[in-house]
Design brief:
4 helices; seven-stranded mixed β-sheet; three-stranded antiparallel β-sheet; single chain; alpha+beta; disordered N terminus; about 35% strand; about 210 residues; 10 strands
């Protein structure tokens, strides 16, 4: 009898196969896309990925065509759209980073994700995923992925066109020991009108070098 393979394990195997085939180096993990149109409406969301999408909910088929309530409920069943993708290009960051001890990550998220534009619901979902993923390092270097890089390699196209787009994609490097750091300059975005929010991240190999 052939044992059943969980969806999570299958997705991981698929991602590794895509990486091996394409020669790509990094996986954009669990980007969650929230839509706050302000009025009940139909929305089309598409991604232009320089690489390959290998997981999505609902199923990504030339984009998502969804109905969204005024408060952001999608198709009367979910808070956000979800995908994962292998990127062909190495991730590029804004200048600066933070170094955080593993047991201090939850407090760091509570303090800093607000500054990066996330609300209470989004922060809670972010922590539920990433606190379970970040278990390798004694410390983590945390960097902000460049918006220009995202626009060029994982462009988000939404119709109708939103008034505000917040993309909070973090890059995590596990470290065995702390290191000196200079935090990046952060300007908290203001939500105005139809707002789209995305959070996600990339988990690098231990002591990886960042492309600046």
């Amino acid at each position: 009898m052939i044992p059943k393979i969980s969806a999570a394990i299958f997705s991981l195997f698929l991602a590794l196969a895509i990486v091996a085939t394409a020669g790509a180096g990094e996986v954009l993990e669990k980007p969650a896309i929230y839509l706050y149109p302000g009025v009940e409406t139909d929305v089309h969301v598409a991604l232009e990925v320089n690489g390959a999408i290998f997981q999505s909910e609902p199923t990504y088929n030339n984009g998502w065509f969804v109905h969204v309530t005024r408060k952001g409920t999608i198709n009367n069943e979910r808070d956000y759209l979800y995908y994962e993708a292998v990127l062909d290009e190495p991730v590029v960051f804004v200048p600066g980073s933070w170094v955080v001890k593993r047991e201090d990550l939850q407090a760091w998220f509570d303090d800093h994700l607000v500054d990066l534009g996330l609300n209470v619901l989004e922060i809670q979902s972010f922590k539920e995923y990433w606190l379970n993923r970040l278990t390798q390092g004694v410390y983590y270097e945390i960097a902000l992925v460049s918006q220009d890089f995202l626009d060029e390699n994982a462009k988000l196209v939404v119709m109708p066109v939103p008034d505000t787009v917040i993309r909070c994609i973090l890059y995590f490097i596990p470290l065995k020991e702390t290191r000196k750091y200079v935090p990046p300059e952060v300007r908290t975005p203001r939500r105005k009108g139809f707002t789209v929010v995305e959070w996600g991240g990339v988990l690098a190999e231990e002591n990886a070098e960042r492309v600046r």
